[in-house]
């Protein structure tokens, strides 16, 4: 529950509130350039056969036999971060957020819309392969053994680590990863509805089937595949939120009454009101409430009013100056949450602030938060402040997006970026031979343009720019995916 605003008891608190509620005082950013680069990053994360229009030319084909040991084609998709594993859970969330970015902000993407659509489709093409055996009750959720992979530092093009295929089925459930996959397919079906109706229908039909599987065989995939997914993408939050999240996207994509009834029937059982200010690959609660609230604000779904109450509480909990221990701000103004890779929280929560701001604007509404009113304009300023911090308006004067601005991370925790490319070094670089590049103090030889790293992970706004500090220096697809929508909006409304 959001609490009333506290009296400012220190100068620091006063300065923080003023800093974050005032418009950004930056000299201005080229948001369109940042948008272009944020989408380009996904080309650096591609696995499989690269297309002729691949723009990051230092990458080559990789993982060309993925799935062979299981008798299925699992080539393609995205490597989640700086390693060479294809983790289905964060990949599906990435695809959902890329789709939501397009759904809400395609009109302001300009010439980058085509590239954004390609980034979505690269994800959904793989998810269709991963769910191709759903008729037999099987979903493939990961390619690559993480222990084998993390024991090496090698280019994806040279991989000789185990490409073990991991799956869930009726006896080994994974409602979380299956639910997120259903959400991604459903969201993408909206993206392609008018552009490729046949593909859109295929995505929606598959989403329906995968959701049914996730709901019938309930359980967390961490329990079924603990060694393979923990501690990397262990489901700490439980699978219930993914079921509601998937149902919300299926309702939006299909308009079928059964999904509306499912959401209403399961709101309490699946704990829609839990952890209202968490949103990311493992926790969907804030996203569920914001997504569903749009219909309430449009006056079409009063039966979902409790979700809007949750969304309003989320908004209040993020305002600087409010007493909520789970949402803090650094001295430089960055949203800070405990745990690694802090930028994933920054981009995901900022996306929700902006999306909800737009929904409120269309409904001519605002959110009362104690003595403060969260207007759409205020929420946009808060979101923009976070984006500007990422792009360089921070105490270090550093852009946390690789390739944007004059000063950005040089030693990114990323195998392909840190090892000489195939064109520069055609000979194979083995598992341990890559260690010299990992420990080298030199900048990465291949610029992973558009990658946003984990950034500061404490309240001091500090950043080491060192590969071994992976929580700060590793980029991920799920950091960038929400940022695509944010940058698209601010490129049109700077």
Number of strands: 7
Listing every helix as H and every strand as E from the N terminus to the C terminus, the arrangement reads HHEHHEHEHHHHHHHHEEHEEHHHHH
Give the neighbour order of strands across the main sheet. Answer: 1-2-3
Strand content: under 5%
Largest sheet descriptor:
3 strands, antiparallel
Number of helices: 19
What is the average per-residue confidence, as pLDDT, rounded to a whole number?
93
> What is the CA-atom radius of gyration, in angstroms?
21 Å
Class by alpha and beta content: mainly alpha
Residue ranges: pLDDT <50 for 5 or more in a row?
Answer: 1-19, 21-26
- Summarize the amount of helix as a percent range: 40-55%
Shape: globular
First-residue to last-residue Cα separation: 33 Å
Structure, explained:
The chain is mainly alpha-helical. It is 46% helix and 5% strand. A three-stranded antiparallel β-sheet has the order 1-2-3. The protein has a two-stranded antiparallel sheet with strand order 4-5. A hairpin with a 2-residue loop joins β6 and β7. The protein is globular. The relative contact order is 0.15.
Spell out the key features of this protein.
19 helices; 7 strands; globular; 494 residues; three-stranded antiparallel sheet; mainly alpha
């Amino acid at each position: 529950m959001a609490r009333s605003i506290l009296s400012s008891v220190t100068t620091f608190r006063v300065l923080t509130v003023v800093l974050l509620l005032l418009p950004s005082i930056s000299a201005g950013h080229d948001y369109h350039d940042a948008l272009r680069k944020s989408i380009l990053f996904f080309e650096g994360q591609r696995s499989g056969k690269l297309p002729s229009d691949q723009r990051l030319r230092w990458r080559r084909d990789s993982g060309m036999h993925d799935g062979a040991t299981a008798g299925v084609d699992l080539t393609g998709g995205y490597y989640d971060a700086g390693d060479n594993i294809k983790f289905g859970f964060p990949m599906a969330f990435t695809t959902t957020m890329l789709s939501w970015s397009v759904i809400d902000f395609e009109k302001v993407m300009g010439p980058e819309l085509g590239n954004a659509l390609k980034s979505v489709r690269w994800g959904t093409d793989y998810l269709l392969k991963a769910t191709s055996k759903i008729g037999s009750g099987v979903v493939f959720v990961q390619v690559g053994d993480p222990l084998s992979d993390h024991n090496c530092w090698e280019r994806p093009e040279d991989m000789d680590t185990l490409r073990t295929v991991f799956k869930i089925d009726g006896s080994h459930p994974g409602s979380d990863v299956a639910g997120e996959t259903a959400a991604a397919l459903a969201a993408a079906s909206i993206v392609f509805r008018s552009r490729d109706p046949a593909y859109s229908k295929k995505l929606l039909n598959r989403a329906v089937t995968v959701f049914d599987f996730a709901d019938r065989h309930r359980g967390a995939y961490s329990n079924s595949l603990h060694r393979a997914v923990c501690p990397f993408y262990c489901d700490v939050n439980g699978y219930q939120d993914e079921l509601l999240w998937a149902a919300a996207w299926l309702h939006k994509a299909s308009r079928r009454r059964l999904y509306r009834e499912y959401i209403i029937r399961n709101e309490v059982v699946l704990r829609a009101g839990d952890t209202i200010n968490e949103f990311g690959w493992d926790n969907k609660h804030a996203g569920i409430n914001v997504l569903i609230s749009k219909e309430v604000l449009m006056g079409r779904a009063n039966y979902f009013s409790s979700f809007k109450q949750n969304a309003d509480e989320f908004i209040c909990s993020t305002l600087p100056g409010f007493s909520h221990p789970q949402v803090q701000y650094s001295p430089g103004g960055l949203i800070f949450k405990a745990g690694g890779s802090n930028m994933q929280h920054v981009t995901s929560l900022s996306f929700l602030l902006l999306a909800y701001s737009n929904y409120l604007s269309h409904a001519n509404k605002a959110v009362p938060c104690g003595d403060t009113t969260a207007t759409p304009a205020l929420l946009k300023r808060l979101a923009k402040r976070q984006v500007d911090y990422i792009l360089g308006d921070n105490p270090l004067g550093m852009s946390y997006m690789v390739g944007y601005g004059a000063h950005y991370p040089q030693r990114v925790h990323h195998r392909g970026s840190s090892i000489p490319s195939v064109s520069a070094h055609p000979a194979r670089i083995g598992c341990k031979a890559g260690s010299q590049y990992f420990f080298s103090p030199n900048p990465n030889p291949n610029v992973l343009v558009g990658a946003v790293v984990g950034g500061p992970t404490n309240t001091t706004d500090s950043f080491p720019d060192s590969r071994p500090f992976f929580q700060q220096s590793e980029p991920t697809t799920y950091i960038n995916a929400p940022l695509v929508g944010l940058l698209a909006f601010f490129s049109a409304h700077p």
